[in-house]
Batch of 4 targets.
Target 1
Amino acid sequence: MPDVLSEKALLAMPEADYMNDAQQAFFRALLLRLARDCEQELASARQVLQTPPQSDPLDAAVDEEACRHQLRFLARRQALLEKIRQSLRRINRGDYGYCDISGEPIGLRRLLARPTAQYCAEVKTRLEENERHYAHSRTG
């Protein structure tokens, strides 16, 4: 496998090279690294949950809150891992880096900031505005 681009080299490429083989390899390596880190964090968090607390019964409320915190962490990490896997599947299909709604390029800088992005900034902004409008109209 050829060397993976550096972030600087990636950003220096012309727009016409968007999502070429080298850029796809860069993001595949990044996503695989993120998936591995996420899997390790999940395994560690599960281990903590499987270890029964050795505290005084008076500390049960503290232990219960810590357990709830770990469960929330697990849920967030599990959701992130699924998004990473979806992004890897999009690379394999050849549609990674393009907005799921408009088909426009998401952009390298946005993908560097959020490698699991599915929408270009314009569409994401519109979706968030629609969510706020919907949430506001439901409460008002």
Target 2
Amino acid sequence: MKTRPKISLYEPDIPQNTAAIIRTCACLGAELEIIEPCGFLLSDKRFKRVVMDYMDYGKIKFYQSAEHFFEEKKNQRIVLMTTKGSINYTKFNFKADDTILFGRESAGVPEKVHKLIGDRLKIPMNENARSLNIASSVAIVLAESLRQNNLM
């Protein structure tokens, strides 16, 4: 199998969104990584209702903390998706093995994480819009990464 992008979620806090992202990654062939702690239990009924039969614990990598995540990724490129980004995601050259990091739905990532990552991208939105749903953002950016790398 070709190298595929990795979608990483920083301390996700809405079970339905995480479940929808698991389904997206399963359907599009991306690896999923979750940086703990999660703001919910994987046994949450809201999570189970959305994830359906797409949950495969063997295909999801869990990191105990951001420190563990960054230690393991020290020789890999991490791309941060953030409303504070200055580069439009369509103007960025994704690599097939990128790790694309998304922050918490409620708060994004802390400033210390912003400072660790050089590539900070945004999805352009209407001027008065605050942010897209994270599951929608993952689908949009993952599709672009796969397209650029001829993986679709």
Target 3
Amino acid sequence: MKKTITSNQGAFAGLFSAIVASLCCITPVLALFSGVTGVASTFSWIEPYRPVLIGLTLLTLGFAWYQKIKSLPQDIDCVCGDDKPKFIQSKTFLFLVTIFAGIMLAFPYYSHLFYPNSNIEKQVVYVSESNVGELNYSIQGMTCAGCEAHIEHEVNQLNGILEVDANYETSSAFIKYDKGKVTPDEIASAIAKTGYKIVD
């Protein structure tokens, strides 16, 4: 009985650390859907600890599986109806927890799919070359492709934006805009609404 409880504790600990490891990328998506975009960068401080949290997830889930497999012969000895383990103590539950933890750990790699592609929806606009402005901002707090998509989506909501390319690896955003329709202050304000900070 003790082994089953220990494997369940490992499963829950692994699940918890997987969710915490992905909070930095889950929060922007949740912020977009809820309309509270300013909280998008709330958990960006977790990013440096992500490798440790991933390791902790793998260790705790590995330990849970070890405990579950180690107790396998005892589970097979008695197939009595009364002694059948509850679902939460079963291998199926541990398997589902492991799959969900994997999905959470991989979230940063597919989080950008949750953002609408504003570039496709934009109409082609012809602007005089002399009226095209370019901005290159350094942005603090971006941790994954989801963060890039969040900034690009918010800036693309402005009228007069021709191109937005945010990059979390370089912590920057390159923006082309129509000077007659939008100002740098409005663009900076749109980025600030996401919760990420422009660094001078």
Target 4
Amino acid sequence: MITYTTSQTTAELEGILQLQKANLAQGLTQEEIQSQGFVTVSHTYEQLAQLNDIEQHLIAKDGEQVIGYLLAMTAASRNDIPILVPLFETFDRVEYLGKKVSDYHYLVVGQVCIGKGYRGQGILDQCYAAYKEQFSQKYDFAITEIARNNPRSLNAHKRIGFKEIHSYFDPNQTEWIMVVWDWRKVV
């Protein structure tokens, strides 16, 4: 039976890292990247645990095995993961509904992954439903960025309710799409 909860144990954090390692772009074929998606950032256990100490990550488990996750990052983590510092700096410039993103109380979806054998079963949707239930009373919205060359992830996030608010090219000429899932009653 699949359950949805927050990460609370060392074994669960290690399960996130195992799933992450199996889905990093550099370990996948071009066909897998296009059809199945990929993750970009490789966290250390210490980084993952530090983030989890601020807001616990959402995980999907099949028995004791972590089969999916949505990482949670707050503005307090702004400088903790060097590769993500430019994302937080972008929040200081990009506007959403007339205010800079950094002026909101937001939660960054630090990374999303569903294990290969569990994709296409609605698990991502259930993870996001649990994520919203866990965090929507504390934060205005969830925000993340997705590489344009990761269409599976981009389309899945749009299906969930994320809306594009900004795009840019990084120094490697990868286009990143910033998306927001607004949890407030916006008129």
